[in-house]
Write a structure and sequence with these properties.
single chain; eight-stranded mixed sheet; alpha+beta; 8 strands
Length: about 210
């Protein structure tokens, strides 16, 4: 069964490997632009708890049969000080920031990313947020170690460029424009009940008549 749950209630050991204890966004010092460059699982758990206590749930996770398919993380820029160092400039303080989204390799290109973004948008809209922002990358290669979302993905989903930059622009979207898009989340979830892992194959014994 596939479902969407809050990031704070998921066992971090089930997250994609570079993300288990990643503190990229929570770090004050300037870090290389890469997931997992600074990690501490216990501190990462504590940061999620602090955000949940002070602001609310800071992410959504897609889980299927107990296994994490992907997750998205977001919070006010106050909780994500690494954003101050990104080349397109600091984010606006009036809107939450989507920091990263990761989908397991076997679940990619199956709609999981769009489902995560929809879940985040609906959560933020229901909490009274008017807009949301996100840094993006123009890189088109392997995104597994990227601490931001792909720019083309965000543009296809209603975002526009707020602060331009050739490699890491800052994008923004008005949540009011996406109300119908986020309200049908259950229908989207139901439509995505497709196998994302390779099915187990049993050897087939051919009978004499079927040869």
């Amino acid at each position: 069964m596939r479902k969407i749950v809050g990031l704070s209630i998921v066992d971090r050991d089930k997250l994609p490997t570079p993300c288990v204890g990643c503190l990229y966004w929570e770090s004050v010092e300037r870090l290389p632009f890469e997931c997992g460059v600074k990690c501490d699982a216990s501190e990462a758990n504590e940061r999620v708890r602090v955000i949940a206590d002070g602001w609310g749930e800071c992410g959504r996770v897609v889980v299927e049969d107990g296994e994490v398919l992907g997750f998205i993380k977001y919070a006010p820029p106050l909780y994500m000080p690494q954003a101050r160092h990104l080349p397109s400039g600091p984010p606006d303080s009036d809107a939450p920031l989507i920091t990263c989204m990761h989908v397991e390799a076997e679940a990619r290109r199956k709609g999981v990313g769009g489902l995560l973004l929809r879940a985040a948008m609906r959560d933020l809209a229901q909490r009274g947020e008017r807009s949301v922002q996100a840094y993006a990358t123009t890189f088109r290669g392997d995104m597994s170690s990227m601490p931001v979302v792909g720019v083309e993905f965000l543009l296809r989903n209603g975002f526009t460029v707020a602060h331009p930059h050739p490699q890491v622009p800052l994008l923004r979207v008005d949540l009011k424009s996406l109300v119908p898009w986020t309200e049908n989340l259950e229908a989207v979830l139901e439509s995505l009940r497709l196998p994302v892992r390779a099915p187990s194959r049993k050897p087939v014994t051919l009978s004499r008549d079927s040869r």
